[in-house]
Amino acid sequence: MESTKKEGNISDVNRWPNWGTKPYKVMPHISPESKRIGETFRLRPTDVVVLSFPKTGTTWTQNCCEQLRTRAGGYDFDDITIRQPWIEFAHDLGQDLDNDQIAPPRIFKSHQLYRLSIQEANTCVLFVIQKLR
After folding, report:
1. What is the DSSP code string of 86-132?
2. What would the mean pLDDT of 119-131 be, rounded to a whole number?
3. 17-128 has which fold?
């Protein structure tokens, strides 16, 4: 991560070099097949993707989205990924990304900055950004 000071200002402008400009990357424990499915998955125009750097509030944002879409209709699952699949990891967890979800809109998680299918589908994207200190 690069950090740049602005003319003596205490606050830093933080950015991750090359984020979204490199080939599609996933964590090493994700299988090649799950990666392939994540790369080629096509979103619907009504889908929502929670998009973030790891450890910047992704799960918290997903839980807020879940409460909104189910009208706080219960939290009877162990992990938010059960309700909102992680695009790059779903196949390895036995999830079919094309399935409908408990309530509309379908919500997904991703740590990929730019995906052509997001742009093509005009999908709603919630970017989670946290100022690092």
Report:
1. BTTTTGGGT--TTS--SSSSPEEEE--S--HHHHHHT-EEEEE----
2. 75
3. Rossmann fold (3.40.50)
